[in-house]
């Protein structure tokens, strides 16, 4: 049973407002999501400093925790001030943490209060209570000696060469160091990470290892723990409360020497010397909501440049910005061109579904080729992964009488039929509507479905391949704490023969039993109006294909597509990253997109569409007066209405981020505004 941590309480006099003349010191305090930074008095006999965690009160609300941004001796202009009291733990954030907080808010154009809201975990107060409790019990940091690592095959020549160079960067240089480890899928990048981390820890360095998805964290933590010989703190949102508390207490108390986590771990008060970003290309490293919309890679680069350290980026399909930085020698470029097991990359076959429609039942999602390959794989006792990047059972419900597509009344996007919920779900606001409601246009109760999705595919596999044991992994099946970890563990232990999933199954997983990968709808997302759409499609196809045949020869990949002539698909099936990069970068250069420019998006919203148009066009006109800025838009956002609010979109391009940030210092009033610097 987990031990109960007593709750600390704020001092009783916290809410008392007194004459400012009675105090000799004051402090400015950042409170998460508060409208501004407030000034509080420091009581006599209390010592506070920049970074101190304090109890304060806003208006007549309950006391809350804030962080001191600076201590001042000048008396404020107002006559009375409330007091700030330190948390019982006496915890003080380091100067590095405070600078990181301020830089993030400044670079991504948010307030420090918004930044602190995402820097501090949800139960931060409880974690500080636990730190205080452990200190009061006299618990000393535990010394966990490394045990012998499990027997592993010797490093390949390429792995050895990469490791030697990385050790040189880690141990023999100061200041910022960056490196890209560009290795084909299955080349043993994780082994290089582990060897490097072991040597870093032996040299007294602190290490942060980042993975893009929650589902990858357990696999990574297990491999590192077995290799290093001790349990490693893990940080992500789906952890159980006791595990999350233990991880945070180890960081806050200074016990942790290595931490593994997802994107938000970069925000923790863990002053690392080495940060490893696995699958660094993944868009999950970019925060979308709420503000600040940071990228973990940018923060890692900033910290390494400011405080010294090595940033190691690893991927089989690096982000084009990272690839260009490596090619231009801004960071070191290390290549693993062969699989560590010496097995060949899988054979990839394209199935043109446009032709198949004329030859088979067009309602079927599985082609004959993929169906037969899955049957053969299951019969041999091997495993398969099937990817379909579309949640639900059917992508829309259509009135059989008038042809109206049922849409969310608040978001104006088609409702998706989810058999699991027996209803129509809006993927933007989350509202669930009855399946059998009458058509809002003509009142007819008759309807039909259009476009299959992953739940329908699951049924189809069960019908055509009854011997298969299939498990589905998507946002609907992984909503509960620990669900994703359990699904992956069961599949790794071969309790299931087919793992069916959305893009979450394509990212970095290592399943020795997988000999077949199928992709249904390989070209989905290609038509999205986003300059990164082609890059994301190439990454998805390459990464998914890389799950097949990692342990032994004979891996196969079958891609079903309606656009078999797409150059991106052909680059992916040829495993030709360099060819794709050259082709894509040429178009980026012509159109002045990253890595040849900096971009930002500004979304403006209002419930009155005509008022929104007027304000958005006026704002674009003001921005266009800046000669260093290229302004595209405003146009309706890709999803033009969400929860009753209309949205319009502007894209800003400039040679550097400074010009963009300066142009956005003054924003239109009376509009909701979302700013995204370096959008993904």
Automatic annotation (TrEMBL):
Biological process, per Gene Ontology: DNA recombination; DNA replication initiation; DNA replication, synthesis of primer; double-strand break repair
Catalytic activity: ATP + H2O = ADP + phosphate + H(+); Couples ATP hydrolysis with the unwinding of duplex DNA by translocating in the 3'-5' direction
Helicase ATP-binding domain segment(s): 170-336
Pfam families: Helicase_C, PriA_3primeBD, PriA_C, ResIII, Zn_ribbon_PriA
One Gene Ontology term, aspect cellular component: primosome complex
Cofactor binding notes: Binds 2 zinc ions per subunit.
EC code: 5.6.2.4
InterPro entries: Helicase/UvrB_N (IPR006935), Helicase_ATP-bd (IPR014001), Helicase_C-like (IPR001650), P-loop_NTPase (IPR027417), PriA (IPR005259), PriA_3primeBD (IPR041222), PriA_3primeBD_sf (IPR042115), PriA_C (IPR041236)
Residues the entry annotates as binding Zn(2+) 1: 399, 402, 439, 442
Principal EC category: isomerase
Binding site for Zn(2+) 2: 408, 411, 426, 429
Isomerase is among the record's keywords: yes
Keywords: ATP-binding, DNA replication, DNA-binding, Helicase, Hydrolase, Isomerase, Metal-binding, Nucleotide-binding, Primosome, Zinc
Listed SMART domains: DEXDc, HELICc
GO molecular function, one term: ATP hydrolysis activity
Cofactor(s) the record lists: Zn(2+)
Family annotation (NCBIfam families): priA (TIGR00595)
Family: Belongs to the helicase family. PriA subfamily.
Function statement: Initiates the restart of stalled replication forks, which reloads the replicative helicase on sites other than the origin of replication. Recognizes and binds to abandoned replication forks and remodels them to uncover a helicase loading site. Promotes assembly of the primosome at these replication forks.
Assembly description: Component of the replication restart primosome.
PANTHER family assigned to the protein according to its UniProt record, in alphabetical order: PRIMOSOMAL PROTEIN N (PTHR30580:SF0)
Protein known as: Replication restart protein PriA
Provenance organism: Hallerella succinigenes
Gene: priA
